[in-house]
Amino acid sequence: MTDTPLLDASGVAKSFGAVKALTDARLTVARGEVVALMGANGAGKSTFVKILTGALRPDRGRVLIRGQEARVGSPRGARRSGLVPVYQEPSLIPDLDVMDNLRLGDTPVDPFRHWVEALGIKGLRLTDLIGDLPLATLRILDLARALAAEPDVLLLDEMTAALPTDLVERVLETVRAKADAGLGVIYVSHRFTEISRLCDRATVLRDGRTVGELPIEPGVEDRAVELMLGETIDLGQRDAATLQAVRRGTPRLAVRGLAAAPKLQDVSFDLHAGEVLGVVALEGQGQDELFDVLAGFRKPTGGTVSVDGQAASFAHPADAIAAGLSYVPGNRAEALLAQRSVRENIALPFSARMRDWGPLRLRHERARVAHAIEKLQIDTRAQGEVQRLSGGNQQKVTIGRWLATGVETLLLFDPTRGIDVRTKRQIYPLVRELAEQGAAVLFYTSELAEVPLACDRAVVIFGGRVVDVIEAGAADEATLMRAAYGLTAQEGAA
Amino acid sequence: MSAFLRKHAWVIGLAVLLAVLLGITKAIQPGFGASGLESLARAALPFAFATAGMAVVVIVGGIDLSVASMMAVCAVTAAVLMERMAGVPALMIVLGVGLAMGLINGALIVLTRVPDIVVTLAMLFVWEGVALLILESPGGNTADWLERATRGFVGIDLLPKPFVIMAICIALVWVPIRRSKLGLSIYAVGSDEMAAFRSGVPVGWTKVAAYGICGLFCAMGGLSLAALTGIGEPVPGPYLMASVAAVVLGGVVLGGGKGGLLGPIIAVFILRIIRTILTLMAVDPNVTTIVEGVIMVGVVMLGTALTLRGRRS
Amino acid sequence: MSMADTDTPLVRFGRVLRDNPMIPLIAFLLLLIAVLEVMRPGIVMPFRIGRDGLISSFWLGNLIKFAIPLAMLAACQVLTMLTAGIDLSVGVVATVSAFVCATLSSIWGVPQAVMMALACGLVVGLVNGFGVGIVRVHPLIMTLGTGLIATGCLQVYQRYVINAGSEIPAFLEWLGTGRTMGMPNGLFLFLPFAAFILWLMRYTGFGRNLFALGSNETAAKLSGVKSWQVLMALYALSGLIAALTGLLYLGMIRAPSLSLANPLLLPSVAAAVIGGTSIFGGRGSFAGAIVGALILRVLDTMLTLLQMPEGARTALFGLIILAVTALYVRITGTR
């Protein structure tokens, strides 16, 4: 019986419509083993986690727990089979007190108390309302609740992200001790330091596939980074003289000490007309907030933004648009009118202002839309409803909307997420061309390999602050990856 | 003690407000006493049950626009049945009918995946039609004891019988549920559906149960309507807006998870007594309707604005 | 997780219907009329031996005549539903407008009375727009509430004018009851009205914004659309249309009462939903709603012929709304 792994997932595949999130994911966890699950953003980690915990059903493949096919249709089913997850976000009910939350999940109280204290939380009362507790405490309560359920396999998904260092220590110690006593642990994390301390093995996902299983040993970081990155293409760089000319004069967009609590702390940079500035960051480092503020979606809690030297503040996206800032959000679903035609989607900004509520200028509209469609090579065979287009063509529509109105400053948030390679390769030159024609482009991407392809330089954000600025020529993926993981910053401090 | 005060601040505030309004009533009309209280409690009876039902579905994160229609169905069913058969079995059947209607509402919401507000809007008309089918025009008859149960006092002269009955009925249904796992699940689903699902709560069943409880309260409301009028009235009364307003005023957040039944019930009495005061001040009853309407819409608007603000921060 | 099953035959069939909603609608209307003809031979057919065509064109004219106010109120529902809203105050607004016009005509004169009636609709609409667009109350609750208040106001108002008597302006009576070549004169109002609504929805920036808000409010916001402006204008327009309908209905019924147009509320929602307008926003057609109104009127005739009681009709309307929305959710997999 010692040979049967506690958890054995193989050949797991899952698609959402045309998007293949997972193609062939594998993962095994033996008794007493802590396995790190790693992968760059968009590699399929979160989908895999959802399948393991029963929130999603796989299209293919199987998940065995202690050699038995786990019919995990719901979190309840997963729990009954012995796998207990601790999710990225707290899964306690905010309006109930601690005791009621335990009753809800049939968690035994005494073991729960034991684990809460072992994990370093003092003075917790069972009558405390969950909504009143600090986030770090909630993460610990989630973990204590999971441990009290006596699982065979524990899944920790970015569990330490919101924890202060002392609590991280306690968590790592407790989990390691529990593993040495026979528990199997899946540890999903971006943090190399924790992984190298806690884990025995690392399983690396890329493009929905398990591409490697590495033992944790010195130098594993480099090997893992290598595995997480894919193949590369090269478009060459713009020469330094041109860039220098571009960066002279008043920047189109100047950001100083921008903050949006809690994630965005202090970000400053200049973006000039004619330049593509990359933004590199792991998930949740404040880049979402940065783009929201610049697009007029969210009010900053500090710092200033100026456009062409003029101080600017945006109460509504309409204000940002008036200042020439066009925003393409990361989630296409946010930007598209799924049931409407390509033409209406592209022409949407034409009728936004109240003075444009009158009769449509159809000829003008048709010309501008046709121009954008041609420029982006949008496949319009299914133009009746945008939701019937492929992901890549949908993304082109969201960009095309701003080509039709005329671009001054383009804010692109991960425009290539989940789209096919061919479209990606159309988008990079397009972004560059726009810049060469005088637009300023801010380009966040979760795929580091894209930075040298599309950008002239990149700011790296970690923990809500700019930790590095890297010229495209020096922005090979390994450098970017290390910077994004805060490794350069740590080394610099050490 | 201070924690208790903090947790129940809103309800305590409402109770104080009610007391003040009672004082004002007494000041305007020194003769306001036992009989005034009794008629207030009688008038509030159907509103209280409608509000209790609405509160339960709002706590689970939904809304039920068909409360008034379900009450009408129950009222006519009671009036028709009690003409033909003994009171107690008829009473049981009416409660069963209410429960069944609520369960149907809930099941349709869960199964069709159509938003609750649309389903219950459609069901509003369906139940209204059913009430008309049972009894085309006001008629039927209710048992005498049912009518008597809403008159007079229990023990001392300050405790009107309708008030006591209302309190007992609601407590009998709600207290055991509130204490059980189902009650927890109702709050959990309304508070955070995703977290509830992850904690292993059967979300669909919980919603169906909550709508069922709402139907049960509506049956009680329908019975009280029949008892008050002595007949069955197939046209739904003005209970929808009133119950939503009382629920919001009573501290139950639209969107779910927060509040209880006590606050909304106190809110019902507050809204009723405002009407009494306006009447005592010899305000035209039609103007009273307008004032009431404005207060209700105002309360709902304020509640929505506060909910939105809370979500943003 | 309905995302995976996007291409079942049912979905594809649903698409065809969604792209051409008028085909099944008109087919259904014709089918109903055929059934009606079988139930009561002679009611529809224009040419029968021994009878002239007058009777049948009378039936057709009658059908259209009573479908017009319904279709006009359905326009309110189509427009508001495009933004995922609804306007449940239209019945009351139409009633208020009719009552105000009838009572004021004898006091102030007809033009002033008509202006006042329209102004009432505008005011209720603006209050709705404020609640929905700025405070963000759910449109259903908001419009129900303003309907309640407006009813109260109407009752108070009635006590002040109870002795003044009422007068129905002659041109409204002509519009409501007159006929030209067998067809109701109401068409003189309705045809331009329908053309205006169709134009508004398809060929103006305002119409585009309605569709955009209902399909995806975030996307509309991203493109610079300020939703409160659009919603404010929309509900004001809806109030105006309801008031206009009230005037026409007054000329048709010729007896102002405190609940004149209230029974039209539910059928107006049903007509919009049957006509292919989604209660979730972003999809709708006024042409469909017009056919929907005709279908409801034919159904009405049938149910009356079958001596179906009022209750069954009400319940049936409710079930139709639920069934059509549930079917829509099922075929498109969206909410």
Describe the fold and architecture.
The complex is a heterotrimer of chains A (494), B (313) and C (335). Chain A is α/β, with parallel strands linked by helices. In chain A, 35% of the residues lie in helices and 24% in strands. Chain A is built from 19 helices and 20 strands. In chain A, a hairpin with a 2-residue loop joins strand 14 (302-307) and strand 15 (310-312). In chain A, helix 4 (109-118) crosses helix 5 (135-148). The longest helix of chain A is centred in the middle third of the chain and has 16 residues, at 165-180. Chain A is globular. The two termini of chain A are 47 Å apart. Mean pLDDT of chain A is 84; it is low at 489-494. The two termini of chain B are 28 Å apart. Chain B has a domain at 40-245 and 252-262. With 313 residues, chain B is mainly α. In chain B, helix 3 (34-59) packs parallel to helix 8. Chain B has 14 helices and no strands. The mean pLDDT of chain B is 87. With 335 residues, chain C is an all-alpha fold. Chain C is built from 14 helices and two strands; from the N terminus they run H-H-H-H-H-H-H-E-E-H-H-H-H-H-H-H. Chain C has helices spanning 9-19, 22-39, 54-82, 90-108, 110-135, 139-161, 170-177, 186-203, 205-215, 217-222, 227-253, 265-274, 286-305, 310-332, and strands at residues 179-180, 183-184. In chain C, strands 1-2 form a two-stranded antiparallel sheet. The radius of gyration of chain C is 21 Å and the shape is globular. The A-C interface holds A 15-17, 56-57, 59, 295, 297, 316-318, 321-322, 327, 329, 333-340, 344, 347-354, 356-360, 362, 384, 401 and C 1, 3-4, 6, 19, 203-206, 208-209, 211-212, 215-216, 218-226, 229, 233, 282-283, 334.
The end-to-end span of chain B amounts to: 28 Å
Main sheet of chain B, how many strands, which sense, barrel? Answer: none
Task: Tell me the Rg of chain A in angstroms.
Answer: 24 Å
Overall pLDDT of chain A: 84
Structural class by SSE content of chain B: mainly alpha
Which whole number gives the mean pLDDT of chain B? 87
